[in-house]
Design brief:
The complex is a heterodimer of chains A (326) and B (540). Chain A has one domain (2-315). Chain A contains ten helices and no strands. Chain A has helices at residues 2-38, 42-50, 74-104, 112-133, 141-158, 173-206, 212-215, 223-257, 265-285, 291-315. In chain A, helix 1 runs antiparallel to helix 5 (141-158). Chain A is globular. Chain B has 540 residues and is an alpha+beta fold. Chain B has twelve helices and 22 strands. In chain B, the strands form four sheets. In chain B, strands 4, 6, 10, 11, 12, 19 and 20 form a seven-stranded antiparallel sheet that branches. In chain B, strands 13, 14, 15, 16, 17 and 18 form a six-stranded antiparallel sheet that branches. Chain B has a five-stranded antiparallel sheet with strand order 1-22-21-3-2. In chain B, strand 7 (249-260) and strand 8 (266-277) form a beta hairpin. The longest helix of chain B has 30 residues, at 92-121. Chain B is elongated, with a radius of gyration of 38 Å. The chains are: A mainly alpha (326), B alpha+beta (540). The interface between A and B is large, with 51 and 52 residues.
């Protein structure tokens, strides 16, 4: 069963990669169809595709022209295929998690490796939910699947752990409550960081910046849409994270270690993340603070989450040391 | 933390009066402190200030690692100490940040609370003159019925959508309906911030009135203890706790059950104790790692366990003494180190005096499962092949001087000065369970057996309930404030002048509608459309 789980996870990563290629294809073809419309001769456009569809050298003239909704180009089709493969990847990912749970005879989030698998699964499932409800944001798929592949790759590189039983200290129903809510919260924060980053890029592009990261903003959804999606994802994840880290965690800590809060490195960084994300929500509610500034704070929050996951697990010693890595 | 857009417009400026500069400075500083930007900056400072506490060892978390740090970085450590680097969360600079933050919070939420209560009691304001200037508006909706009836039915429809409404009669037979919704957002927001205050007060209260202590409790009726400070290995009382305030109870470990996985990882720990509370009858209670023993006014947490070898020493006069000495585990397989000291031995039967140079000390390791290859580390945490490796020392143990020393190691100073001499050679002597070791002077040490011990933490924090309530209420408030949207809808109903004849006779009205989301609310246009549609059709 453990072997099956590893194979399913490998297949899931491959499927994410394939979905990513399709999203990238839509990126290129979506562009081609616009260029095609703008170009006088369709032959020229075909040659562009043959050359691998260069991304940056096209004139930005046609870019702002709205796509006629009636014409569903090849790009759109590839986009749909990308979403389909992405759904398949999520199912494989779920299969990998479930089989790992069955193999270990417990919830599959007992160590750092499994934690990342679960968090990315939540991120991925939420992404699919978002994209199915609002197909307009599909162009983010390239960056969403990129983020997932990077996280999964990092998980198997630095944190792979063979299936094993739970450390007895974790043997409590609070294990299920505390860890699951944090996983869900972190997963949504993870996927929320994608529109946050793309908003900043798109916003820079709208302001006329044409340097490298801003060129990526050409085809992503409108800045307002991205910003709003960022906020909604964060506003949804924040209470979950609050419950998991600052209520369920302390309740369990009280029962297990005798104190509800002890400034263990993991707790310190959860506190830091919470404060930073609270700062994001604050900044966004303050009219005098620019939306770009607020979004930078959200990204900073995500960096603190990464620090808590990788930095604290691998470099600091504390009571939350279940990384089994290295 | 003032949400600027939420506040009603300030009243007209009072007439100028002589400006007191100090007063102006104070007032401006206060405004600056309570502004939302300052709150943001303070939030950031708090996050940044928390970082060193995860980088440097903290005395409150693990004092031993602070000592280690002093050894590893002898130059840096004193500097860090002066900056509060080992007690970040108790340092003045950390406290000043969160106290400023909470002052800013109070300065912001109290006026907001007053405003909110006022807004709750106030009827929604009358419709603006020019609805078309509002973000959402609709015009020329025709309804049958006189304006007053239409206005009342519109208000009823809005009330069914849980708007607060107010119907007003204006001049020329015009009626207006004002409606507002989404007060829960601000209510939740205030609830959240006041809960933060409650949590801070709870933390402070718990610090002042709480206490905690640690105790290594060896099994057996002769090893029990009662809840007084002298019985603890270490203890910390809150500033407002007097030692006499501690609840009265006694504990005695009757059984300890540990099971392990084949890898040596512990699977379960179960401690069975006899508890006597308030000098009442003894009762048997069991507790385990995630399930502490809850007593009146204290909780007992099981932190770990280990073994205490029982050693019987027979001196030159044939008098024997038995000691149960806990050995502290140094690794996950319960390789343990400890010391057995016998100061009151070899007492001359004639003079009844002891010879201070004939005291005995044994130092060494205990392995619950000694490996077959003879290495001095345990291979498994359970007692499958118990083995003691001891070195014997004879001389003055240095216990009579009165300086407090560790009970888990011999006085190294006495060994260095030669007052205490190794009498068993360089290699430690191995003792199996039941073995007797005859020393060079004919005295004997017998390894009688072992008992298990549990390391316990005994704690009380009277504010935990308040904290939990504060945190849960805060979370509910947070969700309300994130989910809610405050918005206003107005209708102006006038008699339909386009219809021939008198409007009242014809019974026709024309309705103009306007909507204003008072917070960022992307769903508002749809809601407004639904409200207008219902108004047009006359169905709520």
């Amino acid at each position: 069963m453990a072997e099956l789980s590893n194979q399913l996870m490998a297949a899931a990563v491959l499927a994410y990669l394939f979905a990513m290629v399709c999203y990238a294809g839509e990126y290129a073809f979506g562009k081609r169809s616009r260029v095609g419309r703008a170009a006088v001769r369709p032959v020229e456009a075909k040659q562009l595709v043959g050359a691998g569809g260069p991304v940056t050298s096209e004139p930005p003239v046609a870019d702002d022209a709205p796509i006629p909704p009636a014409k569903r180009g090849r790009g759109e089709l590839i986009g749909m295929i990308a979403v389909g493969i992405n759904v398949l990847a999520v199912l494989l990912h779920l299969g990998g998690l479930v089989t790992r749970g069955v193999a270990a005879d417990r919830m599959p989030w007992g160590n750092m490796y499994e934690y990342i698998l679960s968090t990315t699964f939540i991120a991925s499932a939420v992404w699919i939910g978002v994209v199915l409800r609002r197909p307009a944001v599909r162009h983010l798929g390239l960056f969403a699947s990129l983020a997932l592949v990077v996280m999964l790759g990092a998980a198997s590189m630095v944190a792979y752990t063979p299936v094993g039983p739970l450390v007895p200290a974790l043997n409590s129903y609070w294990f299920v409550i505390h860890v699951s809510t944090i996983i869900i919260g972190s997963g949504i924060f993870l996927i929320g960081a994608v529109p946050a980053a793309m908003f900043l890029i798109r916003n820079g592009y709208d302001e006329g910046k044409r340097r490298f990261p801003y060129t990526l903003g050409k085809h992503v959804p409108a800045a307002v849409t991205l910003e709003r999606l960022t906020f909604r994802l964060h506003a949804f994840a924040f209470p979950l994270f609050t419950f998991g880290a600052l209520i369920a965690g302390p309740i369990w800590a009280e029962a297990s270690w005798g104190r509800y809060w002890g400034w263990d490195p993991k707790e310190v960084w959860a506190f830091i993340s919470w404060v930073v994300y609270a700062g994001y929500l604050h900044a966004r509610a303050t009219p005098s603070v620019k939306r770009t500034v607020a979004t930078w704070i959200a990204l900073l929050g995500f960096v603190t989450m990464l620090m808590n996951l990788f930095g604290v697990n691998l470099f600091f010693e504390g009571l939350h040391s279940y990384a089994n890595a290295g | 933390m003032t949400v600027v857009e939420e506040r009603p417009a300030p009243p007209a400026a009072p007439p100028p009066r002589p400006v007191n500069r100090l007063w102006a400075l104070l007032r401006n500083s206060w405004r600056q402190l309570t502004s939302m930007r300052t709150a943001l900056v303070l939030l950031f400072l708090l996050a940044v200030a928390a970082i060193p506490g995860s980088v440097f060892p903290q005395r409150a978390v693990n004092a031993e690692r602070v000592t280690q740090y002093y050894q590893q970085h002898p130059d840096l450590a004193p500097v860090l100490e002066r900056l509060g680097g080992f007690e970040v969360y108790a340092s003045p600079w950390f406290a000043s940040i969160y106290l400023l933050l909470f002052t800013s919070l109070i300065g912001c939420v109290v006026p907001r609370l007053i405003d909110h209560v006022r807004a709750l009691r106030m009827a929604p304001p009358d419709a603006p003159k020019r609805m078309e200037r509002l973000p959402q508006h609709a015009e020329d909706l025709t309804r049958t019925g006189a304006p007053d009836e239409v206005a009342k039915s519109l208000a009823a429809g809005l009330r069914r959508r849980r708007f607060r409404t107010k119907v007003r009669e204006r001049e020329d037979g015009v009626w207006t309906v004002s409606a507002e919704k989404g007060f829960l957002k601000e209510t939740g927001n205030l609830l959240f911030h006041f809960s933060l205050l409650a949590v801070l007060i709870g933390v402070g209260f718990g610090h002042w009135y709480g206490w905690h202590a640690n105790r290594l409790l060896v099994g057996g009726p002769d090893q029990g203890f009662c809840n007084t400070l002298t019985q603890y290995d270490d203890s910390t009382l809150g500033p407002r706790v007097h030692p006499a305030d501690l609840p009265i109870f006694c504990l005695q470990l009757t059984d300890f059950d540990a099971t392990f996985q084949t890898t040596g990882q512990p699977k379960t720990f179960l401690a069975t104790v006899q508890v006597t509370q308030d000098n009442g009858a003894a009762e048997t209670r069991k507790f385990t790692v995630n399930d502490p023993l809850r007593l009146d006014g204290a909780s007992v947490y099981l932190l770990g366990h280990g073994y205490a070898p029982i050693l019987k020493y027979t001196d030159r006069n044939g008098v024997s003494q038995t000691k149960v000495v806990p050995f502290l585990p140094i690794d996950a397989m319960q390789t343990s180190e400890g010391v057995a000291q016998f100061p009151d031995i070899n007492i001359d039967p004639k003079t009844d005096k002891r010879d201070p140079n004939l005291q005995m000390g044994f130092e060494g390791r205990y392995l619950p499962t000694a490996p077959t290859d003879g290495r001095a580390t345990s291979a498994f945490p359970a007692e499958n092949n118990p083995m003691l490796y001891l070195t014997a020392y004879r001389g003055d143990l240095g216990l009579d001087v009165g300086t407090p020393g560790s009970v888990y190691s011999l006085d190294q100073g006495q060994i260095a000065t030669g007052e205490l001499k190794n009498v068993s050679g360089a290699r430690p002597h191995a003792l199996k369970l039941g073995d007797t070791w005859t020393l060079d002077d004919g005295t004997k040490l017998e390894f009688v057996g072992t008992r298990e011990f549990a390391t316990l933490s005994i704690r009380h924090d009277p504010a935990q309930g308040l904290l939990l309530v504060g945190a849960v209420v805060g979370l509910l408030g947070l969700m309300l404030s994130l989910a809610g949207h405050r918005r206003r809808v107005w209708f102006r109903v006038r008699p339909n002048a386009d219809l021939p004849g008198s409007a009242a006779a014809r019974g026709g009205s024309v309705v103009t509608a306007g909507g204003l989301p008072r917070t960022d609310y992307p769903g508002f246009p749809e809601e407004f459309k639904a409200v207008v549609k219902a108004a047009e059709e006359g169905t709520p």
